[in-house]
Amino acid sequence: MKQIIYSHLLIRMAKLLIKYAPAECITSIEISKTVVGLKSMPVLSISHFDRVITPGKFLNGTTEKVDGVEVALRYFGRNEDGQA
After folding, report:
1. How buried is 25 (Cβ within 10 angstroms: 0-12 exposed, 13-18 middle, 19+ buried)?
2. What does pTM read for this prediction?
3. Exposed, middle or buried by CB within 10 Å (0-12, 13-18, 19+), for 74?
4. Each residue of 66-76: pLDDT tens digit?
């Protein structure tokens, strides 16, 4: 099996991510480098979950580009009228 070589900077980035990630959310950064030479945009994904219900239904989401990063925001839980 091929060994995956990574920089220790990725560990430092993970520690920074946990420090600054929003509460009650799942936050991740994805970078696809599966095709050599293909430039892909990093994706910052933040999913918020309503703590009152489990599992929540997907309510809505947005995606925008900010400084060369695709930011995807997703919301799961109850809508404003209390319906899941």
Report:
1. middle
2. 0.75
3. middle
4. 999 999 999 88
